[in-house]
Specification:
Helix content: 10-25%
Radius of gyration: 26 Å
Largest sheet: 5 strands, antiparallel
Distance between the termini: 32 Å
Shape: globular
Number of helices: 8
Structural class: mainly beta
Amino acid sequence: MTRRTGVVVVLAALALALSGCVSLPQSGSVKSVSVDVRGESDTLVDYTPGGPKKGSAPVPLVQSFLTAMTATPLNTFVAREFLTSGSSDTWVPEKGTLIYGGKRVVSEPGGQVALQLTDVVELDRRGGWVGDPTHGRGTTIDLKLVKEGGQWRISDPPDRLVIPQSHFEAQYQQYYLYFFDRAAQVLVPEPVYVPRGAQASTLLVAGLLKGPEAALTDVERSFVPHGTALDGISVPVSRDGTAEVPLSHQVLDVDDNQLNLLFAQLAWTLGQISGVERMRVTVDGTPIDLPGARPDVNVGEWSQFDPAVAWASTTLFGLRQGRAVTIDGSTERRVSGPFGALPLGLRSLGVDLPARHLAAVTADGRRALEADRDKTTGPASPADVRTVYAGGTDLLRPEYDLYGQLWLVDRTARGAEVSVVRAGARRVLTVPGVTGRNVERFLLSRDGTRMIAQIGSTAGDQLVSARVRHDASGRVLGATPARPVPLTGATVSDIHDVAWRTPGTLAVLAGQPDGASQVLLAKIDGSSTPEDLGTDAELFRGDAVRVTTSPALGAPLYVGTSTGQLFSLAATGRWTGTSIPLGLSATTFVG
């Protein structure tokens, strides 16, 4: 893991631990309870750092204070011993986390100490990836020390945890908090980082109870009643894999439908932890159950809310000689609707999630058309085709969202213009960081809350992500400013194509300096390390122009060439040819 990404991991995890309904333990003994619940790494080792030594000078005291913030399990009990009595009571590390790759502790006159940090990354108080706010410059934290009882103590600690890269690399893991889209149709994953081990279940539930961050109010929602808190200090997991979630009385005031959605959020969030098979929600020790269900429920019972959209079609679509076809295994068929029956000369294709409607761009890139996939009565005719965008300049491949709305991006002389078509009416949408830029391609997440765009410039290609705001009916209200999704540490000459590989990762077909291509996996929060980006897939030596896959579990991954040949990624990591004849273009899954 690189410094930058490692920092991210720690930051988020710490921020979660520090924020929400559960705060870091500030007092009491530290018990040996850490266990690696994911089973993906070595068992975590408990570490209780020592407190301040009598007569310690300012610089060693600050060094020890930094060490104290690496306690495992996560807590600030010892760290507060390095502070004055007043600052110990007012220190709020819950406000965020700062991770550093290098540090220098410099003594200054009057007992003051300058903490110079390099290669820094921040997480917000929810554990969300912020990145390096210093843009590579590093930061200096000036600490004021005073004598209290004859001993040096820190009087103005920063309201954040300050953690070395090595600590977060060793201790933290990315998970997701699951909220709902605004229309409560599917769950929306929000990446966070928390420590592996026995604390993970507690910290994840604490983060979930806090709800979506304020900036995402119109992006996602939670069905956890306002004010709900953990009614206890932890979410223990029994040896038989049951997580017990003790909640406050607010959950007693919801109806069965809201309780079901609340359980779905908890189940998907806790179900990420290896070994957690069931959960039991309690209030004052009494189980709260859904009608007709046992008090302890299987965490896999809410698959209908899968962010990859459980009911979405798994059919592969493409164009052959400008006409729409479907591919089922080695069988290829033209669709019976106008896009398959008429010589419309299409160059790109989009399909709605149920695979009932198709949208396409004409060969000149100036018009976007829409039609039913199949014709149920009589032969298809031009009257069956609807023009949803005319007079364009260079339209990119269209995309449908969760609500059946059609998204279009036109590459105009003024830069990208983003439009959304709902019930036949087109509306221009301003997406800060995308509108007006040189957009090479774009895609939407199946949960409807994220737009990914590839921005081209003389400095190279860049991926950005914007969040999409909706009302409760799914109508698009706007978008948040786009943020970079960096491919840190990867050698990329240009980006050929991008697709969703999971609800939280992107498959990026990246060109290499030697002319080969490589499929990278990028995390949507921009926190990927070079190790994260790498896959077991071998380099593709052909003329790759397209990557086709979907976020559905077990979906195949294809690479297409400029001649229309399709290659499939085998379990061995090798690219194998398919039986589909040459000439297939614009391959896509629904979405």
